[in-house]
Amino acid sequence: LACYFVGRLLPRPWSSFQVALCPMSSRTVTNIATEQAVNTGPMFPPLQTYSEEETMMREAVKKYAQERIAPFVSKMDENSSMDTEVISSLFEQGLMGIEIGTEYGGTGSSFFSSILVIEELAKVDPSVAVLCDIQNTLINTLLMNLGTEEQKEKYLMSLATDMVGSFCLSEAGSGSDAFSLKTKAEKHKDYYIINGSKMWISNAEQAGIFLVMANADPSAGYRGITCFIVEQNTAGLQIGKKENKLGLRASSTCPLTFDNVQVHEKNILGKVGQGYKYAIGMLNGGRIGIAAQMLGLAQGCFDHAVPYTKQRVQFGKRIFDFQGMQHQIAHVATQLEAARLLTYNAARLKEAGRPFIKEACMAKYFASEVATLTTSKCIEWMGGVGFTKDYPIEKYYRDCKIGTIYEGTTNIQLTTMAKLIDQEYDS
Amino acid sequence: MTARVLVGVKRVIDYAVKIRVKPDNTGVVTDGVKHSMNPFCEIAVEEAVRLKEKKLVQEVVAVSCGPQQVQETIRTALAMGADRGIHVEVSGKDYDSLGPLQVSKILAALAKKEEASLIILGKQAIDDDCNQTGQMTAALLDWPQGTFASELVIEGDKVKVVREIDGGLETIKLNMPVVVTADLRLNTPRYATLPNIMKAKKKKIANMKPGDLGVDMTSRVEVLRVDEPPQRQAGVKVESVEDLVSKLKEAGRI
Questions:
Q1: Helices marked H in B81-165 — which ranges?
Q2: Nearest to residue A45, comparing CAs of A8, A14, A23?
Q3: Where is the Acyl-CoA dehydrogenase/oxidase C-terminal domain (chain A) (predicted)?
Q4: How many CA atoms lie within 13 A of A404 on its CB side?
Q5: Which site among A32, A38, A56, A88 would you substitute to test the B interface, given the most B Cβ atoms closer than 10 Å to its Cβ?
Q6: How far, in Å, CA of B181 to CA of B112, rounded?
Q7: Is the model's pLDDT at A5 over the cut of 50?
Q8: Going by DSSP bridges, is the β-strand pair A164-168/A207-215 parallel, antiparallel, or unpaired?
Q9: What are the residues facing A209 on neighbouring strands?
Q10: Which of A28, A34, A109 minimises the CB distance to B194?
């Protein structure tokens, strides 16, 4: 096990650990296991150790999600649309600008906090979680890391308080092969004209800005890909009809067309031709967000199913008491724990500024597979009622499938991991 | 404008937890059990913060008595909008026997020390259901009290309180300084938003001991035994009204 506790050189969240690591009144073993404050004992706390602020955030989001999102989930799924009340309450709670600095109206917290928030939201509704995930891990991160002062002034505050963002990379002809994208950006004096189309764009119906990857120099291949900030009301930008999906239905997924869309060069994010680098870099972190979403989805589903098994009686005993059931439930619980540890560790590695790409791939790949296993099993444990829409289980089953597909298919994750393993063994 | 509001917050076992009595019947199991702020205390904090937002009070101070863990509860009050916190350290045997008498002595001493002119408490805690601390604090300070408040309005140097009583609603006017205890319908507490949780980290929590306030912590109450409520007995189904009446007569109920 790599030790991730590196003395003095720790960035913020871990420094709050060190302060808290002082002798406290003696506690029982159960306290240490279940209480989430840092306390005495081994110098290397277990992965499920959170700062006070992280614990408070998680509790606050859990409560908020149960009271303000849960009542809308079924309706949003059926109507394939996200309730505007829900979106505005996400902003109100400070959940859309978690890492944005307070000077821009954001929450000023950390990446790990984002992961916890996404996980808690996904337990209630994975569609809402993905909206929050894209905003925090993709849009906000790109702007914070690459934006000029002017761009940050213009957009960060809105992103933290009332504007949803959308990330446009995939096209009909390029999914996994992202860099073979065909959308072009032609330079004219101090502006560019974008022509092309995008597909599978999440949040498209709600977004106020779109981060569009277009090629400004096709002769240079992927080294021409540039990231443009396109505002929603720009002439020539058309948002197509949303897809009728199996799951994550409340999250709008639309095709976009760019018909001579004019974008000033000051709306280029970062440098011309560097878009491919930015996309890769940011998707590495985004992957951990999706892992958290899948983890929350699986846990939320599990939390609904297990109580049922304790109540349902057949052949004179609770179905939980049948050994066959117990073994299945324990197996799934183990997978969930493993997915959690992979996800949390990847997040902590990223925060610590250490290499995390392989671990992020592992987390996303594993969590999405666990979500598929968990939801499938939960339906079986619930029997007939698990198959009906009266219970929330079938929705989790439908929602989980996209996990192995978007933000890097399972095959892509595995290939990326293999490349890194190959390098590791280079002598 | 009133200077300072003191709000008492108590750390109790979370309302959703299934309570279990300890095998030795000395109390309930608290180790490893989820704790949170007493719901009526949340309502009290919310009311105090609203008064501050209306600029009717200048500062909201959250107070809690107990061991190290109560700092989490104070931190939650800070995240809801309280300005600073006071943690009165009580632990070990003193904490086991901590009750309304000692807490009200502490609050009275703090009210004088902090020059508070309004104390808002929850009407009762959901663990002991005493419903005494507010009343005792007022008596110790010789302040008027408005208990079971479902509405609180500050009018100059007076406070109008609408109380929920058995007969309905009673409206009273009290001269400040006063003690008010919050009932369920006083308000709906806000969620701590993430930005406020972050801001709360910078707010100060002062530490002190009951001794610093000259408070005697000896308890006049000794808990002899704690038992679970008796198991609910099965009922009896009857076919007619006559049956019902005769069964009730048999059981000596009428």
A1: 93-96, 100-114, 133-141
A2: A14
A3: 273-419
A4: 13
A5: A56
A6: 18
A7: no
A8: parallel
A9: A165, A231
A10: A109
Query: Which pLDDT does position B252 carry in this prediction?
Result: 87
Q: Which residues of B touch A24 (CB under 8 A)?
A: 68
Answer whether B129 touches A (CB < 8 Å): no
B1: pLDDT confidence band, cut at 50, 70 and 90?
low
Query: Higher pLDDT residue, B233 or A254?
Result: A254
A244/chain B closest Cα distance in angstroms? 34
Orientation angle between helical segments A393-400 and A275-311, nearest 10 degrees = 150
How far is B22 from chain A, CA to nearest CA, in Å? 15
Q: Do A63 and B191 touch (CB under 8 A)?
A: yes
- Pairs from A27-33 (Cβ < 8 Å, separation ≥ 24): A28/B31, A28/B32, A30/B31, A30/B32, A31/B31, A31/B32, A33/B32
Among A37, A60, A108, the residue with its CB nearest the CB of B191 is A60
Output the pLDDT for position B251: 85
Find where tokens 């073979």 sit.
A180
Task: State how far the Cα of A112 lies from the Cα of A50, in Å rounded to an integer.
Answer: 9
Q: CA distances (Å), A29 to each of A391, B25, B31, B61, in order?
A: 37, 22, 9, 34
A407 as an active site residue: the answer is: yes
pTM greater than 0.80? yes
pLDDT per residue as tens digits for the range B93-116: 999 999 999 999 999 999 999 999
- List the single residue in A with minimal CA-CA distance to B69: A37
Tell me, what's the pLDDT at A19? 35
Q: Which residue has the tokens 């060069």?
A: A265
User: Which residues are CB-neighbours of B216 under 8 A, at least 6 positions away?
Assistant: B102, B105
CB contact under 8 A, A52 and B75: yes
Q: Is the pLDDT of residue A27 over 90?
A: no
Beta bridge partner(s), residue B175: B158
Phi, psi of A357 (to 5 degrees): -60, -45
A136 closest CA partner among A158, A165, A161 = A165
